[in-house]
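Revision sheet: structure tokens.
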Amino acid sequence: MARAPISTIMDQLGSLITSKFKDQLGSLFTLEFTSIVNVKEEVEKLNDVEERQVKEKAVNYRP
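Predicted:
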């Protein structure tokens, strides 16, 4: 008799843990992905700045 309620409780607990794990993993994935995108954008900006600086030096070059 007691096994049925314990089994039900264990199933519900397992479902709750799985749901929380999925939520946390999804949030972590979203944060990491956003961080990667932000880093990529910053690198692109730095590359643009560097390219502009090289062009300016070439224009202002006087041997």
